[in-house]
């Protein structure tokens, strides 16, 4: 077996055992582009070996997506098959685990009509609302991992041949996910326990607000009264541990929906549904985006913010040190799974229900009453930098450093 | 554009314009293995250009199927996702057209437990019963075309390298489907009108029975009182023409369920769900298989005949001359789509409702009352040979030749 084959096997095993942590008799649902077929086959073998009853794969194809945006009539983008959405809900209800494989070309829909993209996102967001509630409340085990497409690899390494670019991107992924360590599974257990230490420390502090300052950013984010900091390691409703993002370097909670004020600037490009939004800033008043700018992708950002009422509020506040295995690669990945884990970030849109006490059992109205934002969308964007300072502010105004010069201050 | 690319485009156009004959605003559903991705992309472009609203692709992967048979627990083969079956029915109800791409490795499940294969076929047959009724009554437009997999190509051309075998199989497919003619679409129209001539002649004869004789075969098949001969060109409930099999060389009708007597021998191997059944014979009394033999695949044949009560009766009687563009290739395809169109054949299982007058509007009970067989399964098998004679027998016992020495006698 070649080194690459060995790494691919380890990476499949990591997704199955640590990512979704498949349990005997469980169904594994894999959502993947065609180009990840070789990896998906390895994942299926590992899943059956771990006792999975069935591996159900939902394939997609970048070329077909592009063709549809080029040639289909407008009405096609207002529809999403109801039966597919119902199918996802049925599988979630029956306790399946969900593995998503990311890695599409960040420029795939660069030339597509942004209105079509936005309509398609709205239609799928609405149809998949029921399924997404299983994810957003961690009722089920779910995980996201990445597999390079040629288009993505060439975006990250434009100077290289396609073959070399893909190879380099695989190496970067194996390094960021600790696959090239002797025992990736135990390396991950150690890593997750370090993240848990930060999470526990922040939960003990119980800050009233965070104050972010750096070039282009001066932002105060209040936290919900009953907020909980959460780390990369999650637990589903049956008590099974899983890791939703691989890699993950973040400790995160929810913003108080109406408690965000000031301006924040992006520090990395954001790949949203096949289009890049770059060098943008958002200005908030009482939680709501009241002004925004973007040097690239303004129209796409505007449509994202107009998805629904909740798309103008913040749903996630995530702390990630500037120094991390991913930052150390010094690669701009143009893929949120990686870029968000190399940078402090926020998310526009829906908050995770488990970020407040008892939130997993609350309905939408109760979540909103407790200060959480709800929306059809949830999009992370990167705001971290080497000069970023963050203060934790207590109820009485007392403050102390959380981040200094981009890294943990404690 | 290379010759191969040109042929692939023509083949895609043929499937879209003649096969399913897509109509403006219609959805095209494509069921395909991963290895046909390039062809599917061409089909999607042609479909959108012809006005399709959406192209929905359901992918499958031979490797994953094989892995499942090797590693999944027994109970996995008793299940078929209900929501998928419902989805197919919903798309059919909304008037979608269905294109299936065949071409899997005939030996794919050679080593799989036949009980697992039979359970899986039963589970999917049962779940998809509602959808299949749209197909069996031609309510919707549907078509089957073939794309070579490496495994299939190597089975047909075992002496060649994988690359050469695939290339040769493509050539054979392009030749059998008239793609290498200057204007395949009009070549098909001409061909279909010749088949219609045979159909019309047989419908005027209104035979009471057919009597087959050749080495290993002496079989009498009565036809239903109101039987209709049908050719490769079909018409859906909205009056849109389509061609269900490409290639097609057959003119066919239904047997009278209880009117089949004698013995028939297979003349080509039958690829059933990834296993080959070879050199087999069936003996009938009053329509029912009362004895059977098989040199290869006996267990698989037995399980096929045990699918349900209707799996022991004949549902289709198809006439195909021994001399045809497919026979002329002198290739044994190990794929029913091709082999059945180079040979007289019968089908075990369900009859097509449109093979009797008014059948499209009848329910299962009414079809049975009118002499048609119903079953969860429908499997064609080849019985034609160079020495086959077929007589048409009238109500009064008078008889006349339909086939002599394997070819049309009129
Ligand atoms: Zn995050
Ligand atoms: Zn997020
Ligand atoms: Zn037939
Ligand atoms: Zn048939």
Please report the number of helical segments of chain A.
13
Number of strands of chain A: 20
Low-confidence stretches of chain A: none
Tally of discrete structural domains of chain A: 2
What is the oligomeric state here? Answer: homodimer
Structural class of chain A: alpha+beta
The value of Rg of chain A in angstroms is 20 Å
Specify which chain pair forms the largest interface.
Answer: A-B, 37 and 37 residues
**Distinct compounds present:** zinc ion
Overall geometric form of chain A: globular
Distance between the termini of chain A: 44 Å
> Which percent range fits the helix content of chain A?
25-40%
Sheet with most strands of chain A: 9 strands, antiparallel
Please report which band the strand proportion of chain A falls in: under 5%, 5-15%, 15-25%, 25-35%, 35-45% or over 45%: 25-35%
Question: Could you tell me the mean pLDDT of chain A?
Answer: 95
Cofactor (chains A, B): Zn(2+); Mg(2+); Co(2+)
Pfam families (chains A, B): Peptidase_M29
Keywords (chains A, B): Aminopeptidase, Hydrolase, Metal-binding, Metalloprotease, Protease
GO molecular function (chains A, B): aminopeptidase activity; metal ion binding; metallopeptidase activity
């Amino acid at each position: 077996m070649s080194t690459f084959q060995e790494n691919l096997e380890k990476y499949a095993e990591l997704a199955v055992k640590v990512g979704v942590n498949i349990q005997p008799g469980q169904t594994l649902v894999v959502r993947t582009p065609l180009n990840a077929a070789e990896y998906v086959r390895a994942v299926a073998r590992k899943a059956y070996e771990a006792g999975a009853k069935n591996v159900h794969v939902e394939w997609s194809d970048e070329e077909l997506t592009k063709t549809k945006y080029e040639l289909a009539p407008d009405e096609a983008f207002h529809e999403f098959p109801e039966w597919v959405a119902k199918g996802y809900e049925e599988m979630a209800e029956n306790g399946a685990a969900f593995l998503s494989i990311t890695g599409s070309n960040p420029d795939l829909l660069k030339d597509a009509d942004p209105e079509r993209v936005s309509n398609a996102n709205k239609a799928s967001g609405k149809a998949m609302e029921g399924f997404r509630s299983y994810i957003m409340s961690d009722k089920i085990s779910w995980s996201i991992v990445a597999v390079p497409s040629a288009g993505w690899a060439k975006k990250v390494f434009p100077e290289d041949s396609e073959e070399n670019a893909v190879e380099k991107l695989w190496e970067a992924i194996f390094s960021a996910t600790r696959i090239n360590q002797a025992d990736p599974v135990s390396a991950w257990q150690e890593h997750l326990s370090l993240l848990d230490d930060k999470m526990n420390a922040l939960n003990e502090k119980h800050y009233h607000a965070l104050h972010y300052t750096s070039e282009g950013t001066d932002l105060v984010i209040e936290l919900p009264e009953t907020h909980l900091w959460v780390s990369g390691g999650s637990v589903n409703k049956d008590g099974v541990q899983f890791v939703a993002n691989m890699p993950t370097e973040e400790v995160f909670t929810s913003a108080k929906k109406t408690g965000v004020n000031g301006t924040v600037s992006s520090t990395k490009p954001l790949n949203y549904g096949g289009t890049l939004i770059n060098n943008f800033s958002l200005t908030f008043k009482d939680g709501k985006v009241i002004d925004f700018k973007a040097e690239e992708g303004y129209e796409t950002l505007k449509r994202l913010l107009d998805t629904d009422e909740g798309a103008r509020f913040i749903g996630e506040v995530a702390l990630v040190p500037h120094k991390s295995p991913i930052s150390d690669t010094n690669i701009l990945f143009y893929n949120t799974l990686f870029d968000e884990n190399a940078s402090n970030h926020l998310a526009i849109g829906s908050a995770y229900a488990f970020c407040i006490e008892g939130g997993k059992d609350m309905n939408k109205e109760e979540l909103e009453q407790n200060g959480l934002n709800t929306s059809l969308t949830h999009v992370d964007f990167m705001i971290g930098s080497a000069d970023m300072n963050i203060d934790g502010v207590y109820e009485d105004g007392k403050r102390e450093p959380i981040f200094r010069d981009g890294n943990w201050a404690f």
